[in-house]
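2024-03-11 09:14:02 INFO worker-7 job=invfold-0412 stage=load source=structure_tokens
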């Protein structure tokens, strides 16, 4: 059984490295771009005040200052940056789903803090993996990071207007129901 696609097609690993990192950065930064315009509106829809939303976002930022380097340190200690990346990404999906049942300021702030803690190491770990691969597989890292930036912009451009429509629709439905 073939354990890697490049062996199956008789290609060198470097042929697959750049497309894999382009896909990783595209998905990662597209998700960040899509979620950015929605988070404040979502938290407001869950009943949080503007002050509480600011607290949740600020607390998440403060946690990222410690969690990003901690994730990198764990990856270095374990000599397993891919595994730490995968665990953080998997935990992020699970924790993001906790926003749905959470209600009230404290639970929503706690979810924001936990999510920030597991998201913080993702980009630095992806950068470390991409830079090492760029050297070994002879591709320009700038294309990878540029693809991530383009994906973020695309996600924001698409979801920003959608967020506005969603807020207006919710307000209209609330007016009809109440």
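2024-03-11 09:14:09 INFO worker-7 stage=emit residues=178
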């Amino acid at each position: 059984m073939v354990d890697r696609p490049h062996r199956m097609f008789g290609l060198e690993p470097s042929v697959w490295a750049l497309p894999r990192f382009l896909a990783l950065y595209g998905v990662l930064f597209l998700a960040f771009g899509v979620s950015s315009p929605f988070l404040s509106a979502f938290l407001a829809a869950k009943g949080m005040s503007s002050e509480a939303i600011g607290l949740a976002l600020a607390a998440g930022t403060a946690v990222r200052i410690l969690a990003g380097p901690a994730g990198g340190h764990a990856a270095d200690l374990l000599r397993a940056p891919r595994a730490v990346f995968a665990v953080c990404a998997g935990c992020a999906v699970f924790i993001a789903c906790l926003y749905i049942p959470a209600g009230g300021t404290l639970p929503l702030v706690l979810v924001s803090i936990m999510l920030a803690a597991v998201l913080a190491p993702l980009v630095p770990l992806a950068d470390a993996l991409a830079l090492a691969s760029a050297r070994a597989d002879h591709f320009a890292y700038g294309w990878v990071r540029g693809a991530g930036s383009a994906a973020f912009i695309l996600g924001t451009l698409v979801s920003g207007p959608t967020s506005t429509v969603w807020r207006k629709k919710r307000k209209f439905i609330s007016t009809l129901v109440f």
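2024-03-11 09:14:09 INFO worker-7 stage=report msg="The first helix runs from residue 5 to 8."
2024-03-11 09:14:10 INFO worker-7 job finished
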